Amino acid sequence: MALTFARLKLRVLRNGFRGRPGKVVLFVIGALCALFYGAMAALFFLIPFLPDGPDFGPLVPAFGGTLLVLGWIMMPLVWFGVDETLEPGRFALLPLPRATLLRGLLIAAVLGVPAFGTLLATSGLAIGAGLAGGPLPAVVAAVGVLLGLLLCVVVSRAVTSGFSRALRARRTRDLAAVVLAVLAASLGPLQYLLTSGAQQVGTQRLTAVADVLGWTPLAAPYVVGLDAVQGRWGAVAARLAITVVTILLLAWWWSHSLESAMLGTSGGGAVRVRTATGAPVARFFGRGRQPRTAYGAMVTRELRYWVRDVRRRASLITFAVIGVFLPVVTNLGPSADGNLVASSVHGGSMVLVGALAGLGIANQFGYDGTAYAMHVVSGVPGRTELRARTVAYSWYIVPLLLGLAVLNAVLRGDLLLLPVMFGTLFAAYGTGLACSMHVSVWAAYSLPENQNPFAINTGTGVAKSFLAMAAWLAGMVLALPVLLLVLLGGSVGAVLALPVGLAYAGGAVWLGLITAGDILDHRQPELLAAITPRS
Amino acid sequence: MIEDSAFALQGLVKRFDTKVAVDGVDLAVPAGSFFGLLGPNGAGKTTTLSMAVGLLRPDAGRALVLGHDVWRDPVRAKSLIGVMPDGVRLFDRLDGTELLTYQGLLRGMAPDVIDARVTELLDVLALTDAGRTLVIDYSAGMKKKIALACALLHAPRLLVLDEPFEAVDPVSGAAIRDILTRYVAGGGTVIFSSHVLEVVERLCTHVAIMANGRISAVGSLDEVRAGRTLEDAFVAVVGGRVATGSELSWL
User: Fold this and answer.
1) Which of A275, A347, B40, B185 is 20 to 30 A from B136 (CA-CA)?
2) Is the pLDDT of residue A182 over 80?
3) A524 contacts on B by Cβ (under 8 Å)
4) Which DSSP string do the residues of B135-171 spell out, in sequence order?
5) Would you call B111 and A281 a contact, using CB atoms and an 8 Å cutoff?
6) For the segment A83-130, what is each residue's pLDDT rounded down to a tens digit?
7) How confident is the model at residue B36 (pLDDT cuts 50, 70, 90)?
8) What are phi and psi of A195, to 5 degrees?
9) What are chain B's domains?
10) Residue A446 Cα, gap to closest chain B Cα (Å)
11) Is B91 part of the contact surface with chain A (CB cutoff 8 Å)?
12) From B91, B106, B128, residue closest to A380, measured CB to CB
């Protein structure tokens, strides 16, 4: 049965490639990247088993494993989405026991480039254990590696489907608030951890952390090889047990959210029909004071869609979370004093987040799907279209960025930094927007019309989200002049940062709008074709 | 003849990968006619109409709307036609009133005109009761009706409708037929695709039958029927399997 699922997955993948050479090329590039980085990581994982390895050798499995598992948790939420080539809902009508379905979907999920790369990377642990301790430790390490892979796959599935269930609920904003509150609350301990870690970067301290990690599911499957080499068989058994129990618990959670995903959400109780009152146009704009034109109408609709559309909501929330997380982590680390390195790390994190904020519109047309046809048949001018979308998006993002800068300034205890932060942040936001605008016109891709906001079509979707990453990078590079002004300009730079940053952002967005807008005018049908899901 | 037709297609071609979906379609739709585009599934009806209204770029050929080339002068041409595409989603997280108002504003109509027309359209199409229900929660028939309303809102001279009667219940279907008949009587031109032959036979003044990406028969309803029923004419033109009664005996 499981074999049937594996064959089905491979068949669907292969058929997706048929007659699309570009997709094949991108897939091959992705596979080569996985091969390269996987091999590099495998070498890295060999370090702890070297006879005269460096001091930090024994720390590698714990920290490396933790990074891997965290990556599998975060990446689908933040960046790539999960590959739902075999969408659970499709199996709803088949008489399959839930356990069989779960096993099948799991196997289908393991067949993929990311899982392959992970396996390759961690295989270094098994090889190393074999070289250092002979066949038995090698087998133990291999079991750990395989269990680790299973853990990674199950955790990413469980987290995305659990999260998407939560996001579908109307109370999402409450959820977002909770997430943010938890993050804010965890800032205190985090700060303590990082600063104390920075004060004594001795191996001892890190060893203590690694020890703790080794007893959590995050690293447990990856340190068993080392244990086996050193003959700690009790620890091996305990850690493997921890891993297996975690996998079972996650699978149980996943199967639960799977069930609700298969039932669908169409029968969400009786829909209360509220009568509409007032003139249509007045009602459409509500209390908004947008102009009563096509531009105003698009701004109003986009404003509503960023809240009503699950995918868009998910992307806003995700950005809010990373936006708070990233600069806080980089700023509260070892760089609390005021030298040039510290301030470049700090300014750099602002540029990073600013450009990332712009990325939210990189697939703005993909969110609309075929509904965009209405704009095409109505002949909406490209510049107006992009301007409206950018304004509506900024309506949500700009306050977020402002709050973020204030939070950072407060945490660093220096409110005088605010103008400089605003300057760099908004300059990068502007350049990020300009680059993302072009990506959105040139490289839009369709999103599957299913319930999981993190689902993404394999192949084109993943490949094109790499382009979004390129836009992020380009946005950061383009914002460098403002960062350099801040870093090297001394007090003059600090004074000029805000006005220059804002003007820079304005210029970048304006240029992006007119160039991308004119291209859009000539690419409307192609864009529509790109965002139409192929069924 | 091309010049005084409301809608003219000349040599439209579209290939997808290696498959030729539309293989040189010429069509002239006379002003004031009620034109039915017939054909089996996969004949290329939707592809043809998409190219004719600016949704899909043709590989060759051109489309003229009241003398304006859809691909050279899209702004003018698009302002003259009302389109109801098939298999296309609407901005369905708006309610019906919001969606129509949005369409009106996109078309650059004046707010007071939008107010009056939206209210009337919803009333005539019996969608007022839906109130603030989001379009995503509408039934299939209601979605068709709201899409039709979107096409009608700016009072175009030409309506291009893809499968307007698909998935529509008899009551809604009658309402749509009624509106379209009145629209043609008022001087408008309608071209729609369908494979519901009864509706076509009842409504249309002209028909064209498409098969395998080409127009196989075209003319006034009587010319195409040539004394037969439309169904017989259709099967004769398209060519189909005639049941002998002996297959599927195990059923």
Assistant:
1) B40
2) no
3) 54
4) GGGS-HHHHHHHHHHHHHTT--SEEEEESTTTT--HH
5) yes
6) 666 677 777 777 878 788 888 888 888 888 888 899 999 999 999 998
7) very high
8) -70, -40
9) 5-88+157-238 (3.40.50.300)
10) 13
11) yes
12) B106
Polymer length of chain B: 251
Q: Which of B191, B210, B211 has the alpha carbon at shortest distance from B200?
A: B191
Rounded Cα–Cα distance for residues A150 and A126 (Å): 16
**Helix axes of A480-488 and A340-358: crossing angle, nearest 10 degrees:** 160
Answer whether B54 sits within 8 Å of A377, measured CB to CB.
yes
Residues 6+ apart with CB under 8 A from A236: A140, A224, A227, A228
Mean pLDDT highest for which of A4-13, A316-325, A327-336? Answer: A4-13
ipTM exceeding 0.85, yes/no = yes
Among B60, B90, B64, B86, CA closest to B77: B64
Q: Of residues A9 and B205, which shows the higher confidence score? A: B205
Contact B133 A292 (CB under 8 A): no
Does the beta carbon of B161 lie under 8 angstroms from any beta carbon of chain A?
no
Q: Over the stretch B163-186, which tens digit does the pLDDT of each residue have?
A: 998 888 888 888 889 999 999 999
Asked whether the beta carbons of B173 and B166 are under 8 A apart, the reply is no
The one-letter amino acid code at B184 reads V
pLDDT > 70? residue A460: no
Per-residue pLDDT averaged across A487-495, rounded?
85
Residue of A nearest to B93 (CA): A308
Stated length of chain A: 535
B79 touches chain A (CB under 8 A): yes
Q: What type of residue is A210?
A: A
Residue ranges of alpha helices (H) inside A332-379 are 340-358, 364-368, 373-378
Q: If you write DSSP's letter for every residue of A33-85 in order, what string do you get?
A: HHHHHHHHHHHHHHGGGSTT--TTGGGHHHHHHHHHHHHHHHHHHHTS-EE-S
- Report DSSP letters for B71-114, one per residue: TTSHHHHHHHEEEE-SS----TTSBHHHHHHHHHHHTT--HHHH
Distances (CA, A) of A365 to A27, B102, B181: 23, 17, 36
**CA distances in angstroms from A288 to A279, A291, A392, B108, listed in the order given:** 15, 9, 12, 19
Q: Decide if A239 contacts A220 (C-beta within 8 A).
A: yes
- Give the nearest chain A residue to B156 (CA atoms): A378
Q: Which residues pair with B10 in a beta bridge?
A: B62
pTM for the model stands at 0.76
